[in-house]
Every structure is written in C-alpha cells, then in structure tokens.
Amino acid sequence: MSVSDLSIYFATSNEHKFNEVRGVLSASRIKIEHLMFKHNEIRSDSLEEIAFEAVNAAYVKLKKPVFVEDTGLFISALNGFPGTFSAWVINKIGSKGILKLMRSEQNRAASFKTCIAFSDGKDIKTFFGECSGAIANKQRGKSGFGFDPIFIPADYKKTFAEDTKTKNKLSHRHQAVLKLADFLIRKY
Ligand code: ITT
Predict the structure, then answer these.
(1) pTM here?
(2) Mutation probe of ligand 1 site: the residue of 20, 35, 38, 86 with most atoms within 8 A of C-beta
(3) Which of 48, 54, 179, 186 could crosslink 68 through cysteines, CB 3.0-4.6 Å?
C-alpha cells in the first residue's frame, strides 16, 4: 500500500491547526481526514503526556490510524507559562492578557513547542517541533490564530499573524509534521 492510499485521521477541535497540518502533508501526497475531536485533555506539564493520552482516546473512538497534536507557548520570563495551559489561557485572558503580564518585562524570549502523537492501535509514536522567538510589545497582524499576533520568530521582525508564509515555513507545527510525514512514508 502506498501512503497516498491511506486514510489517516487528525483528531482536533481546532480548524486552524487542521488546515496548517493538511498543507504540510499534502506536499508529501499524504491526505488526511478531520476527526472533530473535543477531548478533555489531562493536566500535565508535558506536551508528550497530554498527546499520548489523547491519541489513545482518539484511537479507541475511531479504530483507525490517527494522530493528535498538542502545542503550547512557553514564555521564559513567566517560567514557561502558559505552556501546556495555552488553550485555557487564550480563552480566559487572550493575547491581550499575556501582553499585560509582560508589560514591564525586558526578557521577551518565548518558544512554541509541539508534540504530535500517532497511533495505529499497536504503537504510539511521538514527533516534536519547536520555534524560538519573542513576545511582541503589542498585537500585530490579522492572519493565523491563537497567539500568532504576539509572537515574532527569531531573526524576523514580523509576527506570525503578519507573515503566514514565514510561519508555514518554520513553525513548531511544520517541523513536527515533517517528521510525521517522514515516518508515514517509511512505514507505508
Ligand atoms: P485540540 O483540539 O487539537 O487540542 P486546541 O486549540 O485545544 O485544539 P492546543 O491545546 O494544542 O489546541 O493549543 C493550545 C492553544 O495554543 C490553542 O488553542 C491556540 O490558542 C494556541 N496555539 C496553538 N498553536 C498555535 C500556533 O501555531 N500559533 C498561535 N497560537 C497557537
């Protein structure tokens, strides 16, 4: 069987994430289906633990090859906050709230980290991606989602929300998905 004949599902409740991942995988001729998956993820400081538990739950539901992806924004001056609590934080205080917390902070260093977990019902494989950068002083840009308006990748001036092309080229998600694609091509 070739990888292009496969039915692989991405279980997520986030359409932005789905579209970004589909874009990267389609370049490797890997088609994915969307499993709308609203799951109460476990509380943990580890993206990998969260993704591992979630992909197990998704496989039990679907009984087909499936992957999930967990991402967090880790801000150095806030000891890694919001990290694995990013989804909760964006809903409660948003990017505006993060900018408030960072108002008098000189150290703007932050990174996005992603863990993808893939399950075929027998094994679970995990793949990681990371993108370093800085928290902007104000929100800029209209594209993207989540914290994109306040994140400037290292060596660039524009936020992810101002420059989607750059985001799609070097993001945490892009890196993790390339590793997943490589694995799927070898496996199938
Ligand atoms: P799932 O159903 O896939 O879990 P989610 O939106 O809850 O969707 P995550 O827990 O992985 O996804 O992500 C936490 C939040 O971090 C997410 O809701 C966004 O607000 C933010 N986020 C994730 N990826 C991002 C990105 O590439 N750019 C900006 N913000 C991002």
Answers:
(1) 0.96
(2) 86
(3) 54
